[in-house]
Automatic annotation (TrEMBL), chain A:
Keywords: Cell membrane, Membrane, Transmembrane, Transmembrane helix. It comes from Paracoccus hibiscisoli. GO terms for cellular component: plasma membrane. GO terms for molecular function: transmembrane transporter activity. The chain crosses the membrane at residues 86-105, 112-134, 169-195, 226-245, 277-295, 301-325. InterPro entries: ABC_transp_permease (IPR001851). CDD domains: TM_PBP1_transp_TpRbsC_like (cd06580). It is found in: Cell membrane. It is a multi-pass membrane protein. This is ABC transporter permease.
């Protein structure tokens, strides 16, 4: 972490603390909402991290999440099982990953074009199949009961509820989330450990920096990149399933609403590192939560209109992508198909 | 690692099979025969040099040994056992290690991480890293290969990065080490250190194959040397029994003697004057070290030399497009006016307007756009000329008429200006470039390898055009690796070696042997008639000890 990053982190955390001191209940509600809203972003961001660290740029995170949300909601509705929905979500996302892999690894195509195509494909296909199957204008029927992931109460949550400071944080924020939220947060240390402590991680990072070094070491560049793209597909699948069966109760047309692109911005903000990704996506989640909680934020002097509040995450995305966060150096071989030189 | 070396016991006895042996290796890329029926035997515990010009097929051969390419025919034996090297993994297992010209290192990894990449001992990194740390310490002590194992590679000097590559190979238990042009990016001190390391490795029983186009290196450290030319292995000799002169001749080769009909030159006023031209490339390597040249109107100055000794850089700078990131200094005057060497006014378009034509060394990359038609290619560089434009629109009909006429005069076949450049033969492609440059009547024409890959008929035609331009009173700088071409066309011959002009000779008063020595970087200090003929005012600023 450099100085700039630490500074931003301190500012955001102090805002949270001040908020909690000023209005405890509202802060608890807002930050809890932020945790839920950041979950799909975090999963998608980590998904992109695996793919891009391996040298395959992926702007199709959005499309994969959308497809996963749709297949998850459909299967969860038809079977009544959120778990089967999750499996279907992962399958839907993985199938698009495979297309991306074929286009950009096997056929050495342009990764951006392939990603754009996947986004369009998912956007069209979900509505088309949805309308055909359910006749609700692209929506899936609402999910109830076991069709959705339910909040989990962690052990001791009730006992600790009245302990000052610890109570609201543990019982109010940490406990009472769905399993997929915990999965998303657990993925952060896991990803860090995989990337920096295992053989697979070493090779994954190497193939995104200099695939020739991996190739001359006798390791298959193609297999490594496919593995990374597949992991990306699985994580996007979980993210999409969470959107449709955890955060909401069913699939709605274009329900990802640019989250895939926000996740990409967060990935750049985090400079392709997992812990920083956690922080970056929290920032986006927090902005979205604040916009939901205070549609018209009254700052005393002026009232910030709701349109502006809702636009905040997207404005931050633009600011980040315009390079206001310092130089973000992507993996050096990113975006380029590996061709053995003569 | 040490045990493996100890078992070999240094130099081999005569009965032992060769460390590596090639039998009849051939490899073609499309129509280009990169390797033709190559046979080679490298005894264990020796340093074997493979020398040849750029494009002679050395790197292809080594890539075959490392499993990057499959040979079309032939057999490889390692330690007497035939093996089929289908990928790098097989090569590594057979004990072959490769240090590529362009390092295959991950720049933001530490030295240790780079070393274990691909040969980790288990799924977790920690044990592999600590094992590698131990082995590295041992190797460093044994072979003077000191590198900080925890330093990130991008912070290392080029010489240290190369050591990491060597350590990588040794860590993989390589017994045969192949180095491809290892000194190209090194300073002389780093190169000397490298040679000490290589000698140490040989004395421990390792076999080393050194690929280079530098004769000095071959003479300095190899035991045996093989010469490659145009995809063929033309000779294999003991280094002690050969001479740089002989090797230079073998590398360049003797072709059918060319003869060009030309009258003695009648040089007039100086057109190009180059003083102290120096160029340091982006890696900090000095490519040109104080070049002094004069070319007068109506004469051809030929630059001979083994390719890779700075000729390309000289042409690029004079042509107005020095390599990216290069630092160029010195004084260049064209018709008495200074020619900018960087910044504004130093671009290829401006050079053309200043009257410098350029037939570049690589016509397929610099001379033509292969997928564009002949008429488009004929207009390039002059596409903004008034006769090719109507207002702010291009006058394509005028360009086509002009192209058709040029193709007529230069006998380009087929005479169809709508054909893509790619669809012409090498000789006819070159004629398109030559027509474009010569017909503009430049004061100075830069020519690089005018007849590389060109059939004999076109060679004759192109040579005639060059001489005709000279007789029209133009100055010509001719760079060629074909010694016969240089001798046939030039009025004066300058020999380049290692970024310097080693000396000037008159074609009628020199021998290929003498030029071969100069091309190998060997000169005697006595003045020759040609050097003595240089006007006195230019001799005083020649650097000391340039011999």
């Amino acid at each position: 972490m450099n100085i700039r990053e630490s500074l931003i982190a301190i500012i955001v955390l102090s805002i949270c603390v001040i908020w909690a001191l000023a209005d405890g209940a509202a802060a608890q509600q807002g930050i809890g909402s932020a945790l839920r809203l950041m979950t799909p972003l975090l999963l998608a961001c980590l998904a992109g991290l695996y793919s891009e660290r391996a040298g395959v740029f992926d702007i199709g995170l959005e499309g994969k999440m959308l497809m996963a949300a749709f297949t998850a909601a459909s299967v969860a509705y038809l079977t009544g099982s959120a778990w089967l929905g999750l499996a279907a979500g992962i399958a839907g996302s993985l199938s698009l990953s495979l297309i991306h892999g074929l286009a950009s690894i096997t056929f050495m195509g342009n990764q951006l074009i392939s990603g754009v195509a996947i986004n369009f494909l998912a956007s069209g296909l979900t509505v088309l199949i949805g309308q055909n199957a359910f006749g609700l204008g692209g929506r899936t029927p609402s999910l109830t009961g076991a069709g959705r992931f339910q909040p989990i109460t962690l052990p001791l949550a009730d006992a600790l509820r009245d302990v000052p400071v610890l109570g609201p944080i543990y019982s109010g924020l940490i406990s009472g989330q769905t399993i997929l939220v915990y999965v998303a947060f657990a993925m952060v240390p896991i990803t860090w450990w995989v990337l920096f402590r295992t053989r697979f991680g070493l090779r994954l990072r190497a193939v995104g920096e200099n695939p020739a070094s991996v190739d001359t070491a006798g390791v298959s560049v193609t297999r490594l990149r496919y593995t990374a793209v597949a992991i990306c597909g699985i994580l996007c699948g979980i993210a999409g399933a969470y959107l449709a069966t955890g955060l909401s109760a069913g699939f709605v047309k274009e329900m990802t609403a640019g989250r895939g692109f926000i996740a990409l911005a967060a990935l750049i903000f985090a400079k392709w590192r997992p812990w920083q990704a956690l922080f970056a996506t929290f920032l986006f989640g927090l902005l979205e939560a604040i916009a939901n909680l205070y549609p018209n934020l009254d700052l005393g002097i002026v009232v910030v209109p709701s349109m502006f509040m809702n636009a905040l995450p997207y404005i931050l995305t633009v600011v980040i992508l315009a390079g206001f966060v310092g130089r973000a150096i992507p993996p050096r071989a990113g975006g380029e198909p590996y061709v053995k030189e003569r | 690692m040490t045990t493996a070396s100890d078992m070999l016991g240094g130099r081999s006895d005569t009965a032992a099979p060769a460390a590596i042996e090639l039998r009849g290796i051939s490899k073609a890329f499309g129509a280009v025969q990169a390797n033709r029926d190559i046979s080679l035997s490298v005894p264990r515990g020796t340093i074997h040099g493979i020398i040849g010009e750029n494009g002679a097929g050395k790197s292809t051969l080594m890539s075959i040994l490392y499993g990057f390419y499959k040979p079309d025919a032939g057999q490889i034996l390692v330690g007497g056992q035939p093996i089929s090297i289908s990928d790098s993994q097989t090569a590594i297992r057979a004990g072959i290690g490769m240090v590529f010209q362009h390092f295959k290192l991950v720049q933001n990894f530490t030295v240790l991480e780079n070393i274990i990449l691909g040969v980790e001992d288990g799924a977790l990194l920690r044990p592999s890293l600590s094992k590698a740390r131990g082995v590295l310490k041992q190797l460093a002590a044994e072979y003077q290969l000191n590198v900080d194992p925890d330093e990130v590679v991008e912070n290392l000097s080029v010489g240290h990065q190369q050591r990491v590559e060597i350590l990588k190979a040794l860590y993989r238990q390589a017994d045969i080490l192949i180095l491809d042009e290892p000194t190209g990016v090194l300073t002389p001190a780093e190169a000397d250190h490298l040679f000490r390391i290589l000698k140490g490795l040989r004395d421990e029983g390792k076999t080393i194959i050194l690929i280079t186009h530098k004769l000095r290196e071959i003479m300095e450290i190899t035991d045996n040397v093989s010469v490659m030319r145009r995809g063929e292995m033309v000779a294999s000799v003991r280094t002690a029994e050969t001479s740089p002169e002989q090797l230079a001749e073998l590398m360049v080769g003797r072709k059918v003697l060319l003869s060009v009909d030309k009258q003695p030159a009648r040089p007039q006023a100086p057109v190009l004057e180059v003083r102290g031209l120096t160029m340091v490339d982006i890696d900090g390597v000095e490519r040109l070290r104080g070049i002094d040249l004069d070319i007068r109107a109506g004469e051809i100055l030929g630059i001979a030399g083994v390719s890779g000794n700075g000729q390309t850089q000289l042409l690029e700078i004079l042509g107005g497009y020095p390599e990216k990131g290069a630092k160029v200094s010195g004084d260049v005057q064209l018709n008495g006016a200074p020619l900018p060497l960087s910044g504004r006014g130093c671009d290829a378009g401006q050079r053309r307007r200043d009257g410098v034509g350029h037939i570049p060394e690589d016509r397929q990359v610099e001379g033509l756009i292969m997928d564009f038609t002949a008429w488009e290619n004929v207009a390039f560089g002059w596409h903004d000329a008034p006769e090719f434009n109507k207002g702010w629109l291009m006058d394509n009909d005028a360009i086509r008429r002009d192209a058709q006429a040029k193709m007529e005069r230069f006998d380009v076949r087929p005479r169809d200006c709508h054909l893509a450049a790619r669809n012409f033969s090498g000789g006819n492609q070159q004629k398109i470039v030559v027509a474009r440059e010569i017909e503009r009547n430049p004061d100075l024409l830069l020519i690089g390898q005018p007849t590389r890959g060109v059939d004999i008929g076109a060679i004759e035609f192109i040579h005639k055009q060059i001489v005709a331009l000279r007789d029209a009173g133009k100055a010509i700088l001719l760079v060629s690796v074909e010694l016969d071409e240089i001798l046939a066309l030039s009025d004066r011959v300058a020999v380049m070696f290692d970024g310097r002009i080693m000396g000037e000779r008159l074609p009628g008063q020199t021998t290929t042997g003498e030029l071969g020595l100069l091309m190998a970087g060997i000169t005697d200090t006595q003045n020759t008639p040609a050097e003595a003929g240089i006007p006195p005012e230019t001799t005083h600023d020649m650097p000391e000890g340039r011999a």
